[in-house]
Write a structure and sequence with these properties.
32% of the residues lie in helices and 0% in strands. It has 1 helix and no strands. It is mainly alpha-helical.
């Protein structure tokens, strides 16, 4: 296909490192697991702080959206 290319032995590639198998940690997923402590109980302080932050963000951005939403 490419006659001008010299044909020679293929370069030897270094061996691939073997992957280390890691101990799998149980996967905590879901919204509720974000508010659980290490024992699995609901952390009320986290829930309250997060709720306050959400309300603060809402109060900051709602004036911008109210300009586009006609009532």
């Amino acid at each position: 296909m490419f006659p001008e290319r010299p044909r020679g032995p293929m370069p030897i590639l270094p061996p691939r490192p073997q992957q280390i198998k890691r101990k799998q940690i149980p996967n905590k997923s879901g919204l509720l697991s974000s508010f659980q402590n290490d024992e699995g109980d609901i952390d009320i302080d986290k829930v309250m702080v997060t709720g306050k932050k959400i309300m603060d963000v809402y109060n900051q951005v709602s004036p911008f959206f109210s300009k586009f939403i006609k009532r």
